[in-house]
Amino acid sequence: MKILVTGGTGYIGSHTVVELQARGFEVIIVDDLSNSSIDVLDNIAKISGKKPLFEKFNLTDSEKTEAFFKLHNDIRAVIHFAAFKAVGESVEIPLMYYRNNLVSLINVLQGMIDNNIRDIVFSSSCTVYGQPDQLPAREDTPVQKAVSPYGNTKQICEEIITDTSITANVRSILLRYFNPIGAHETAFIGELPLGVPNCLMPYITQTAIGKRPFLRVWGSDYETPDGTAVRDYIHVVDLAKAHVIAVERLTGGKGKKNVEVFNLGTGNGFSVLEVIKSFERTSGVKLNYEIKERRPGDIVKVWADTEFANKELGWKAENDLDSMTRSAWKWEQALAKKK
Ligand code: UD1
């Protein structure tokens, strides 16, 4: 069964490709390599023994997308990762985010409809919940107005897919990720942030390896046990495995509604300081950090209610925080050796 993975050379995409291949799926990747490297294809092959099919273009190009779908008329389902994801940049250049994230989804859905491909798994985010009134966040927790154009594109994409599923013959699973961190245990693939990372985990590992002088901990006066903000960190490999289950659910006709939404988290919240402690424990490196003011736009705390995903998908995150920080460090060290 051939699966199209858009954004398949990216961080979550590449880990998902490996898990799909392990379950016997054939994978074709479309990626414009705007935030990833062509080397990822060989690195995937080092793990799975199979280099995925690959085409480089940007999915906002409707003609290329149409031609692609016509040529590859044996695609059975789509996992759509391809998107811009830097929150700050989306505030600076909103139209670039709206154009890229919305138009590429529209073109993919059109290609699917024109070629009778029914099943799509979409890469959404817990950002749609904002700061929920009640924790843990459940799938039916009301979606809140997005704080950034990036977050808004995730909400609008969920709506585009939902509206499309009402009239067209499309079935979808929307996966709302909490905070994916870590890397494949082989350290052949992992997160490759361009420039200065915004996210916590790559900032920690880059500080520890000496690329950054110190980590800034954004805020220590939150209403949380140690005052630093709390998130539900999930190992990227656990996340990747959920995509395979979602694809099998759709292609096996096991979905219960045309649009299904699942939270992908562990159900546990950890503070920034707890992540740092875990990193220090698993790496043996003492991290240089300083407490700073709160970062504008950050929420205080969020973690997932995972009951629905656990029960309905039969999926549960297996890796604990130490396993996440250990693998992230192994990946950073592997990157340092390559240079
Ligand atoms: C961010 C995005 C979210 C997106 C997710 C993708 C915002 C507001 N949200 O989530 O929409 O889906 O990335 O992974 O940007 N921290 C530090 N120092 C740092 C970096 C982070 O203290 O140098 C703290 C943050 O304040 C936060 C926690 O670490 O409390 C996690 O931050 P981050 O990894 O950036 O993820 P989110 O902000 O939760």
Question: Could you give a quick summary of the protein structure above?
Answer:
The protein is of the alpha/beta class and 339 residues long.
The set of bound ligands, ions and cofactors reads: uridine-diphosphate-N-acetylglucosamine
The CATH fourth-level homologous superfamily of the largest domain: NAD(P)-binding Rossmann-like Domain
Q: Can you give the helix content as a percent range? A: 40-55%
Low-confidence stretches: none
User: How many H/I helical runs?
Assistant: 11
Instruction: Please name the CATH architecture of the largest domain.
Output: 3-Layer(aba) Sandwich
Helical/strand content category:
alpha/beta
How does the overall form come out from the CA principal axes? globular
Number of distinct beta strands: 13
Compute the gyration radius: what is it? 19 Å
Main-sheet strand order equals 3-2-1-4-5-6-11
Describe the overall structure:
- The chain has 339 residues and is an alpha/beta fold.
- The chain folds into two domains: 2-181 and 234-264, 3-Layer(aba) Sandwich (Rossmann fold); 200-231 and 267-338, UDP-galactose 4-epimerase, domain 1 (Alpha-Beta Complex), CATH 3.90.25.10.
- 42% of the residues lie in helices and 17% in strands.
- It has helices spanning 11-22, 39-48, 62-71, 87-92, 94-114, 149-167, 200-209, 236-251, 272-283, 307-313, 321-338, and strands at residues 2-6, 26-30, 53-55, 75-80, 119-125, 171-177, 179-181, 215-218, 230-231, 233-235, 259-264, 270-271, 289-292.
- The strands form four sheets. The chain has a seven-stranded parallel beta sheet with strand order 3-2-1-4-5-6-11, with helices on both faces. It has a two-stranded parallel ribbon with strand order 7-10. A two-stranded parallel sheet has the order 8-13.
- Helix 1 (11-22) links the parallel strand 1 (2-6) and strand 2 (26-30).
- The longest helix has 21 residues, at 94-114.
- 49% of the residues are buried.
- The mean pLDDT is 97.
- The structure holds uridine-diphosphate-N-acetylglucosamine (UD1).
- Uridine-diphosphate-N-acetylglucosamine binds next to helix 7 and strand 8.
